[in-house]
Every structure is written in C-alpha cells, then in structure tokens.
Write a structure and sequence with these properties.
23% of the residues lie in helices and 14% in strands. It has a three-stranded antiparallel beta sheet. A two-stranded antiparallel ribbon has the order 4-5. The chain has a two-stranded antiparallel ribbon with strand order 6-7. A hairpin with a 4-residue loop joins strand 6 and strand 7.
Length: 230
Amino acid sequence: MKSGKILIPQIEVLPTAVVANPDTPPELEIRFDMPHGPDFEDINAALPANWQLRFVHNQLFKHFQNPSRFCPGAFHSTIARKAEFRSKQHKDAYFSMCEAVLKKWRLHGPRPLNAHPADNKSGIWLFTDRTKPTHFFPPNFLPPYDTEEKRKIILSYLTEDWDEETLGWKNAEYPEKEAEKKVEDKAVAPAETANFMQWCGNPIEALLGAGGNGEAKPAADAASPSSPSK
C-alpha cells in the first residue's frame, strides 16, 4: 500500500438508497452504487457519483491475488442489524424519511463523509475491528480528474466488475443514465455546507401522521442516512 501502486483519489460519495437486506430480521444498509455508467467515449463527460469506490475496489482486487478474495455487497454501509418495525406503517414512514433525506443528498451532490466537510480525510483506512483504525493511506491520486491521462486511468478500472458468485472478473454492467430532471423543490439547499447534516433533519413523526401518538419509532430508530459512516 505504501508503494503507491494503488491509486487513491479524494473520495466524495453520494448515498443512493437505504435498503433492508434479505436477512431475517434484516440489516439496514446505505447503498453507495454508481447510479449510471461512465461515458467511455467522451473523456470530457462528467464521471458518475461514487466512481471512486469502484475504482479503488477494482485496483485492490487486481493487486492482491488471493483466489478466494470476497467482499459481499462492497458498496454499502450497514447502519442497523436485526431491524424490526412495530408495524407496516412505521416501516413505510421510516423508509419515506430515508428517501426524503436521500433526495436532499442528491440535490447537494457528492461530498466527503466528515463532520467538517472542509477537512477531507478520505483515503483507505485499515481496522483491527470496527472501532480501532490502525493504518491510514491518504489520497495519492489527486484532482483534477478531467485530464486525458487521468481519465484514461480511471476508465480502465471501471470496465470490469468482480463477480461474487464465480470469484472472477466480468464486463461491468451499469444502469442507464436517466434523463436529467428539473428540480422542482428549490427551498432545500442550505447556504452553508457545514450545516448540511442539520439540514437533513428527521421527519419521522410527521411522516407517521395522525395516529402516531408520538410513539412512532422503528426498532432501528438511530439508523438514518443523515449520519452516514464509512
């Protein structure tokens, strides 16, 4: 890692969904997928959100040749385990709240996951467990990313996808890019970047509506994409 063979960009991410995985009871996960594929023909086209995660992931899998290397659901962060809801109404309200927060993230665009956005501490962190970081490798592949040389390097690592079933490489398949839509809600973007997390809020009680009686909290009430973690 210290050799510089792994190119580490500055990482800014955009959460794309909050989902319940297939477990029973499920885990709640924030997804950080690429919403669409990169433009492999026009090197001047903007890169899709979260390209940095797949770029680093694919480099690591190509560099470390362990035949059993496995990383299930690489592009997500688990925010709650064994999540159960008091009722379907509570579950629907919770995921409606999550979608409202994600919409605000999308309007604001990709950003670093730091308490203070101006202090970008992205990079690769190694942990002995979930609470004890031991090594930090800062970015060594710095912006801008629109030069021809850097764009060719980036795109070369986005053409393939690691198949978790066969433990081998396959051609990457991406969702089609949706047509850009006009943003109708213009009253959500804050003036100060530092206030973004407060701006997300937590409208769970309001979403439950009449009949919630102030008791509307899912079992995983702390699991909200307004406070994402790596």
